[in-house]
Amino acid sequence: MGSWHIIFTLGIFLAAGLLSGTLGELFRLPKVTAYLLMGVILGPALLDLIPHKHLEELKPLTDLAMALVLFGLGNHFTLSRLKRLFRRVLPLSVGEILATFFIVFIGLLLVGESGSAAILLGAMAIATAPATTILVLKEMQSEGSISEYTGILVALNNLVSIVAFEIIFVAVYFFQGDSQTSSVFTQLGHLGLDIFGSIFIGVFGGLMISYGSSIIKGSRRMIMFIALIAIALGLCRTTGMPYMLTFLAMGFTVANSLTEEEVPKVEAELYPLTGFLCVLFFIIHGAELKPSQFIDAGLIGTSYIVFRLLGKYIGIFVPARMRKEEPEVSLWLGTTLFAQAGAAIALSGIAVSRDPVLGGHLQTIILGSVVFFEIVGPIMIRQSVLRAGEVPLINAIHHTAGDPISEFQSMIRRFLVSFGLLSEIDQPPDQILVEQLYRKNVKGIAQTATFNEVISFIEHSHDNTFPVLGPQEEVVGVIRYQ
């Protein structure tokens, strides 16, 4: 483990993010998964290159990344859109939440887990990782029913999981005789105040962003956005209120208080910073993952993973079939909700602070299962939207217009030309022949090729224009890839 300056660590993370993103494209992995795996390699689980204190010191940046992602998610929840979708999404959400809760709860009881731990794990199983899920969908630029439903389901899942966990935790202690009735009502009152307070901060911050957008122009708008988001995040962290609700509420408020033309501008201005911070978020998150914790979770941890997967899938599949939703929705929507991390980890941390014995047991299971869900979850999201046909062709295939060797040669040539060490034109223009201007031995696509064969050809070629050949190898057309 090194002991260098934190800026050096930041540079390592960004360089690692660049490399892992490129490798992710090459091996057809979501960038989120590639970032996480790179973090695992750099972290204590393998190479242990990063000073542990740097991971803690960079936590505010990862919190800000999550806040920006949640704000962006809330930006899509206009009232008109919610009214259009809510009637269709609500039955799916209820089915998925109930199925996940009861399948995990009852399943863990059957494998020998205690009642108090099983019911709390049932509540925690509802939560879905918002940053992971939303960023994979954005990377794929997917559009369609599954992509629309997923955003709303993720928001509802985390809201219900947080509230259910708090209520169940209080109820468990009450029925065990560890709390007085007055104490129960006090804790529920604190829960209500936290929820109301977090939403209030979000709504107020959203109104300030909308108002500021109308009177502040240019680059100062970006400063205003970040200032308000950072202040809101700081308030939530200081008071212990759930900032997830704050930034969903903030994004929702902005979406409904600005014009339809202005909302995308806000998101576009924040996008470069969001992308930068999210690279750090996932690499740091990966560095914190410890594959050994998956083993530590044991039978209960493995059972939790299996039952949660079943709950998510069955909870969507059954109501979707009953309501005669599109076949793609019933088959693939549930698998977009597998990822789990931040909310569940935070809830397990709350449990530890209240009851070190019970909380420690819950945390072991959650941390062990997160290793699985954060690696497999993004891959399943990508496959789901691909299988459902919601991904543009340009994002469904991996194509590069050049190879590393030719790009390196071009760079060296430009460098030598700029210093006058090499002529830009090897011979006078009036002596250049046509045969010197075109490439020879160019392969083409057969006129009878299937769609899959065309995709494979494009992925294995560095050209952007592809001749289509007839039976006699004659050119009958051209395909251009842009």
TrEMBL record:
| InterPro entries the UniProt entry points to | Cation/H_exchanger_TM, Na+/solute_symporter_sf
Q: State the annotated membrane topology for this chain.
A: Multi-pass membrane protein
Instruction: Note the Pfam families from the entry.
Output: Na_H_Exchanger
What Gene Ontology molecular function terms does this protein carry?
antiporter activity
Annotated GO CC locations = membrane
Transmembrane segments annotated in the record for this chain: 6-27, 34-52, 64-82, 89-111, 117-137, 149-175, 195-216, 223-250, 294-311, 331-352, 364-381
Superkingdom is: Bacteria
- Domain Cation/H+ exchanger transmembrane span(s) in chain numbering: 18-382
- What GO biological process terms does the UniProt entry carry, in alphabetical order? proton transmembrane transport
Its subcellular locations are: Membrane
Keywords of the record, alphabetical order, are: Membrane, Transmembrane, Transmembrane helix
Q: What is this protein called?
A: Sodium:proton exchanger
